[in-house]
């Protein structure tokens, strides 16, 4: 069985878990501490980031966007028609632009701050890093989520799914980020009805179930986290 | 003819110029000021970054990695065999991992500092941004380039090209970054023979010529910049 080195609050790992589930693939999940630089993991991925996917043939692939393209090419095509990536180059470019937007920009401006401050710093043991909280980081994330949510609402309001007519990798890249933030109760859903309606549709997919059962010792999920009618 | 909104010292723009030239494609180049947030460009690319490629059919594609994949799908395949991207999924994943490494990590840790401090800040007009130099940024970039050069040397020393046996997008993503830094005389080539030999090979390709003739008013190129036997 393939292996996935991940952390439940690594948004890129969640993205890969969603894509795997959409392709009806399973993997053995190995939980890592993303705040540590573990030599064995650096050997697999010099960037030191999660997720790292190891396929049955020992192919090692790392990084959310890169693993998703790999799964698309190796597993997505087995399902008759390739799923989660449109056929035409222009539409594919729009999917890739949005995957980068969510996994780099939204991640860097919101999720990374939230997860580092509210999850990773609570998990760090003695000598595992600087775990003193940074209120400025949380404030920045709370300001930034508002315009990201608005952009998601804008996209969802004029298209069927975020990148166009069909459900695509872009929807899962966005939902993976938002699901981390939503667990922490930090998505101001009331600010954008259109974004909320889109998220409810993604969240209802069977591929989302494993994310909704994630729990974190000492940090309970927001009351509506697993609620499909939030 | 397609259009490319670019700046000569935007490494991602250089990457796209190299890929275009490798595919024997031309485009009308429109120079932008990447330090400004121009409404007309933000409408084309909400991320506000260069390059932005507009194809003959008015398809708008933005971001170096995304444009390169688009060119691969629309132009690369027309040349009999697809060039710059290997056939097998595992090898493609390695190309994409390295493109991300160079255009995100090397860029963020080296090129962006160098170009912002030494090029963009000199170009900024009154009211176009904070143009006071930051010596700490240059120091960080000078420290970081050394381990990036070492990694390039390590890859080039055990493979024919950076991502494997064949020349690929990864070589051009790396060379696009290094060429900006090399113009400024900030690549310590003496520190890694293997990296230097690899760069000499990439630099000798006809696709590189237009980059080597780039000049910047007030900032002359390093003496060896356009020298193929540097």
What would you call the structural class of chain A? alpha+beta
Strand segment tally of chain A: 4
Separate helix tally of chain A: 8
Kindly report the greatest chain-chain contact and the residue count on each side: A-B, 26 and 26 residues
Rg calc of chain A: 17 Å
Strand order of the largest sheet of chain A: 2-1-3-4
Number of domains of chain A: 2
How would a crystallographer describe the biggest sheet of chain A? 4 strands, mixed
* Low-confidence runs of chain A: none
Strand content of chain A: 5-15%
Order of helices and strands of chain A: EHEHEEHHHHHH
CATH architecture of the largest domain in chain A: Up-down Bundle
Shape of chain A: globular
- N- and C-termini, Cα separation of chain A: 35 Å
Give the overall pLDDT of chain A as a whole number.
94
Quaternary structure type: homodimer
The level 1 CATH classification of the largest domain in chain A is: Mainly Alpha
Subunit structure (chains A, B): Homodimer.
Domain GST N-terminal (chains A, B): 1-79
Protein name (chains A, B): Glutathione S-transferase
GO molecular function, one term (chains A, B): glutathione transferase activity
Provide structural commentary.
The structure is a homodimer of 230-residue chains. The model of chain A has no long low-confidence stretch (mean pLDDT 94). The N and C termini of chain A lie far apart (35 Å). By secondary structure, the first copy, chain A, is α+β, with helices and mostly antiparallel strands. Chain A has helices at residues 11-22, 39-44, 64-74, 89-123, 135-158, 169-183, 193-203, 209-212, and strands at residues 3-6, 28-31, 52-54, 60-62. The longest helix of chain A has 35 residues, at 89-123. The first copy, chain A, has 2 domains: 3-79, Glutaredoxin (3-Layer(aba) Sandwich), CATH 3.40.30; 89-212, Glutathione S-transferase Yfyf (Class Pi), Chain A, domain 2. Chain A is globular, with a radius of gyration of 17 Å. Chains A and B meet through helix 3 and helix 4 of A and helix 3 and helix 4 of B.
């Amino acid at each position: 069985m393939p292996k996935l080195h991940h952390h439940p609050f690594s948004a890129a790992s969640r993205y890969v878990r969603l894509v795997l589930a959409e392709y009806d693939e399973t993997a053995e999940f190995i939980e890592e501490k993303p705040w540590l630089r573990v030599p064995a993991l650096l050997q697999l991925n010099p960037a030191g980031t999660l997720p790292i996917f190891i396929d049955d043939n020992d192919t090692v692939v790392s990084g959310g966007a890169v693993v998703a393209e790999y799964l698309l090419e190796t597993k997505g095509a087995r399902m008759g028609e390739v799923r989660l990536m449109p056929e035409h180059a222009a539409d594919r470019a729009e999917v890739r632009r949005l995957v980068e937007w969510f996994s780099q920009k939204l991640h860097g401006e919101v999720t990374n701050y939230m997860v580092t401050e509210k999850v990773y710093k609570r998990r760090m043991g003695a000598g595992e890093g600087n775990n003193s909280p940074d209120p400025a980081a949380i404030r920045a994330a709370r300001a930034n989520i508002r315009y990201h949510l608005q952009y998601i609402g804008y996209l969802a309001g004029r298209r069927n799914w975020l990148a166009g007519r069909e459900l695509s990798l872009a929807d899962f890249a966005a939902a993976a980020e938002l699901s981390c933030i939503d667990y922490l109760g930090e998505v101001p859903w009331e600010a954008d009805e259109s974004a909320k309606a889109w998220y409810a549709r993604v969240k209802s997919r069977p591929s989302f179930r494993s994310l909704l059962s994630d729990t974190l010792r000492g940090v309970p999920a927001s009351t509506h986290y697993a609620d499909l009618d939030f």
